[in-house]
Specification:
By secondary structure, this protein is an alpha/beta fold. It is built from 13 helices and 17 strands. The strands form 4 sheets. It has a 6-stranded parallel sheet. It has a 4-stranded mixed sheet with strand order 3-2-1-4. It has a 4-stranded antiparallel sheet with strand order 5-15-16-17, covered by helices on one side. Helix 4 packs across helix 7 (about 215-230).
Length: about 450
């Protein structure tokens, strides 16, 4: 690992609520205390990291929606490459999804396989989701006791055979069981019956692909999911919301006090259907990128607190599966890799809308950490892990796929000019330099 610091001081230290100047003292990898900027105490200057005035100190981001895919599909992505990319993007904790690895994290044996595969490869800290699938009801509580942060389910086919969807009755049964030990369910909410009546995707046409997964599929599935929350009382989280038309139902559910939270992703807040070229399958994700009016309504949902978190849904695959040479949206794998790029993508778009870095810390650090039960991660509060990045908010850069640290550097953002550069990332007060593996597997509670 890189050099350690005993203190860091900056003219701009960003939290979810405001910005301040100050000096953070670090002991044993945690924030020990906060002092005025010029209060060096007995610290020698060589042990103090002082940021340039045009740089800001950000808490380490927490990305709770990452498909690492190892073991089993490591050619798509793996712990080494995913955590390197995360560190380059200012992310210091990620939570790995229970599918597309083989075996999936739906049994205790699958959990142990995942933990074994991660050993010795992590540049940042990693927690794990479990999965809820048909037939694994008796595995849920043991997985929870073993430290997974919650349980992912699909309400339609997931795209991989080893992670099948829950029927409405299976969903209710799983949520009742998860409620019994105060667990958390997270759901991919699209209704297959709606998709079955939609037009089929048609080769290279992006509009045809978008129309094959209409927003009504999300709204219908979310309505069914909310009814099940009402019936069971299970804490529930909706992943990667793309359809703004579901926001009124979400508003009503939150108003009546249902234990509900919602996330969206940078690609739904930055990209628009109008600008996706036909045949450009690097833009394919499910649910799809929708039109500009929908995008702006999602931003409204963030401002109003209806959408709680912004996370990557980093879902990579090999170039062959993206069918980049054919451009067939119907047949290509759906998923966008943005684990490394999320912060500058969001800052570019948010700053254009008059939003602040504190908003991004709230959406991309504090609330994801709270969702996953990861304690003070995502903050620089006293007692929190001293995980942070140095960010240059006024610098710009052009996205070059060659600079992405994913195993397969496929991106819809190639050649885009973005605002904001992550200069360095620190884990427990030590610089992540890419030569060692200081990250740890953590459990719910995030005390490591």
């Amino acid at each position: 690992m890189g050099s350690a610091v005993r203190a860091v001081r900056a003219r701009r230290i960003v939290s979810a609520d405001d910005e301040t100047s100050g000096l953070l003292r670090i002991r044993d990898g945690r924030v020990e205390s906060l002092h005025p900027f010029d209060d060096l105490g007995d610290l020698p200057p060589t042990e103090i990291l002082t940021l340039d005035d045009d740089h800001v100190l950000l808490p380490g981001l927490v990305d709770t929606h990452v498909h690492v895919n190892e073991p089993g599909r490591t050619e798509w992505e793996g712990f080494a490459t995913a955590t390197a990319a995360a560190a380059a993007g200012g992310v210091t904790t990620l939570v790995d999804m229970p599918l597309n690895s083989i075996p999936p994290t739906t049994t205790m044996a699958g959990l142990e396989a995942k933990r074994s595969a991660a050993q010795g490869q992590l540049q940042i800290d990693v927690a794990l989701w479990g999965g809820a699938v048909p037939g694994n009801l008796e595995e849920l509580e043991p997985l929870w006791r073993a430290g997974v942060v919650g349980f992912k389910c699909f309400l339609l086919p997931s795209g991989v055979d080893e992670f099948p969807p829950l029927s409405p009755s299976e969903l209710r049964e799983a949520m009742a069981r998860i409620k019994s030990f105060d667990g958390l369910l997270i759901a991919h909410a699209e209704d297959q019956s709606v998709l079955d009546t939609a037009p089929a995707p048609n080769g290279r046409s992006y509009r045809d692909f978008m129309n094959s997964r209409p927003p009504e599929a999300e709204s219908s599935a979310i309505a069914m999911l909310l009814d099940t929350v009402r019936a069971t009382g299970c804490r529930t989280h909706i992943v990667h919301l793309s359809a703004a038309g579901a926001l009124p139902a979400i508003t009503a559910a939150k108003s009546e006090g249902l234990p509900l939270s919602v996330e969206t992703c940078p690609h739904y807040l930055v990209l628009t259907a109008e600008t996706v070229p036909d045949g450009a399958t690097q833009f394919k994700c499910c649910p799809p990128i929708r039109d500009e009016a929908n995008r702006e309504r999602l931003w409204d949902g963030l401002r109003e607190g209806l959408i709680d978190c912004v996370v990557s849904d980093h879902s990579p695959c090999t170039p062959e599966l993206k069918l980049l040479d054919q451009g067939d949206f119907g047949a290509a794998w759906g998923g966008i890799s943005s684990l490394q790029s999320g912060l500058p993508l969001m800052w570019t778009a948010a700053s254009q809308r008059g939003l602040q870095l504190s908003d991004l810390v709230r959406w991309m650090a504090v609330r994801p950490a709270a969702l996953a039960g990861l304690g003070k991660r995502g903050t620089l509060d006293v007692g929190a892990p001293a995980d942070f990045s140095i960010f240059a908010p006024e610098e710009t850069f052009t996205v070059d796929p060659a600079g992405l640290r994913y195993r397969n550097p496929i991106t819809p953002y190639a050649a885009a000019t973005l605002r904001g550069v992550v200069k360095q990332t620190y884990l427990r007060g030590e610089l992540i330099d890419g030569t060692t593996t200081p990250g740890r597997l953590i459990e719910r509670g995030g005390s490591a």
